[in-house]
Design brief:
Blueprint lengths: L1 H22 L2 H23 L8 H4 L2 E6 L6 E7 L4 E12 L31 E5 L8 E2 L3 E5 L4 E7 L3 H5 L1 E13 L20 H6 L3 E3 L5 E4 L2 E4 L2 H10 L3 E2 L4 H13 L13 E2 L2 E2 L2 E5 L8 E14 L2 E16 L7 E5 L3 H13 L4 E7 L7 E3 L5 E3 L4 E6 L7
Parallel strand pairs: 11-22
Antiparallel strand pairs: 1-8, 2-7, 3-6, 3-8, 4-5, 4-7, 9-10, 11-17, 12-15, 13-14, 15-16, 16-17, 17-18, 19-22, 20-21
Length: 405
């Protein structure tokens, strides 16, 4: 045992002497300086290098979260959406109105009392989570509720809110926590819905000047101005209006009574009150459509009449539209004892309202304002109400996904 210890001690002395000898060697001096340099410089290199960003799991899966304040009419998410983007909404949380019961993102079950209140969506739950793209009057809200998947029709800013009245918002507390997952990022840039003029080479001046400028009543008295033209098959025309929130009116008194009763029993607001008949191409309108608030529908509503013409553009029918905005009542000058609807005399505003609502659907591919050779600038309706215009008519070409009429 002593021999082994003596041997190990001798080896240690020998190894220590060798190390001392090597460290005094010139080559080892250079190596020592290199190691010292690396020890000092390497941490500096690490500090100078770009930091690796750790992305939370929610963001790495393209998910965003927002708290919706029920006291606001609309909550700006600061999120600019892309056309074609596919999103999934998931919402939790509770909201309560003063002295009421809490409810979740699907809203409260509608009751008869809701029929006398104005909500953004007249047939969705009271206080339900809703959304819209853009802040303009023509932006169409949609129901979100607890869970919803949606493909964005047009690019624009996303707003979240509740399906409630202004009075509800004043006494609301709580919030909805909304998570938005981006399932497909879409392909276009996040810019607002395009409204610039686009070339209309397919609309010849001869064809445009042949079209009637105004509709008339049954007796032939000229009335509303034709201020919008649509290019598309019937199904495409009806789809774009439905998507934009326009609804078809009832065509008869019997239909009015049945619709009103049915909507009331279903706790839905009645919006399809019929409109008077005007004539173009020797017949009354093919369709009457309205965009209205429930409590104002009797005296105030955006409305239009739609006729299919005998003309075509690129093989698809051309439709004529006379759009006006009812803003109250006035005396019908044809029958002095009867009232009639008074329209906003600036009919160009209603023309642009139609443009705004339809463009927001993503189903309009081309738009242009064209002034005919003999424009209508000042006139009166069939009932005697005055109106004025810059004389231009809006031409909209609808997206064509089919080849059959």
């Amino acid at each position: 045992m002593n021999r082994i210890l003596t041997s190990n001690k001798a080896f240690a002395i020998f190894f220590g002497a060798a190390v001392v000898e090597l460290t005094t060697n010139r080559c080892m001096g250079l190596l020592r300086r290199l190691i010292l340099t690396m020890v000092l410089v390497f941490p500096l290199l690490l500090l100078a290098a770009p930091a690796t960003k750790t992305v939370p799991s929610s963001q790495s899966s393209h998910a965003l979260a927002f708290d919706v304040d029920p006291s606001k009419s609309w909550n700006d998410t600061q999120l600019d959406l892309r056309q074609g983007e596919r999103l999934r909404f998931d919402a939790i949380g509770m909201v309560v109105y003063r002295h009421g019961k809490e409810f979740g993102p699907d809203g409260k079950r509608r009751g008869f009392g809701d029929l006398v209140r104005n909500y953004a969506l007249p047939d969705a739950g009271h206080g339900a989570l809703i959304a819209r793209v853009g802040s303009s009057e023509g932006a169409q809200p949609l129901f979100i509720g607890e869970s919803f998947e949606w493909q964005v029709p047009v690019a624009g800013r996303l707003y979240l809110g509740l399906n409630q009245s202004a009075k509800d918002a004043e006494m609301a507390s709580g919030n909805f926590h909304v998570t938005i997952a981006v399932l497909n990022a879409g392909g276009s840039l996040p810019t607002p819905p395009a409204k610039p003029e686009t070339p209309m080479a397919t609309v010849s001046r001869k064809l445009f000047d042949e079209l009637p400028r105004r509709a008339s009543d049954r007796g032939g008295k000229l009335g509303d101005m034709v201020n919008v033209l649509l290019v598309g098959y019937k199904d495409q025309v009806l789809e774009v209006f439905k998507t934009a929130g326009w609804v078809q009116v009832d065509s008869s008194v019997e239909g009015t009574m049945l619709s009103a009763l049915s909507d009331t029993l279903a706790r839905k607001n009645y919006l399809t009150m019929p409109m008077s008949r005007l004539y173009l191409f020797g017949r009354s309108q093919d369709y009457g459509l309205v965009h209205a608030e429930p409590l104002k529908v009797a005296k105030s509503r955006h409305h239009l009449r739609l006729w299919k013409s005998t003309y075509e553009l690129d093989g698809r029918p051309l439709w004529c539209v006379a759009a006006t905005h009812d803003v109250g009542f006035e005396r019908d000058k044809r029958v002095k004892v009867l009232p009639t609807h008074k329209i906003d005399p600036n009919v160009d505003q209603e023309r642009e309202y139609v443009h705004e609502t339809l463009a927001a659907t993503g189903l309009v591919t081309e738009s242009s304002h064209i002034k005919p050779s003999l424009p209508v600038t000042e006139a009166v309706t069939a009932s005697g109400g005055e109106f004025h215009s810059d004389g231009r008519e809006l031409v909209l070409v609808l997206r064509n996904d089919t080849t059959q009429p």
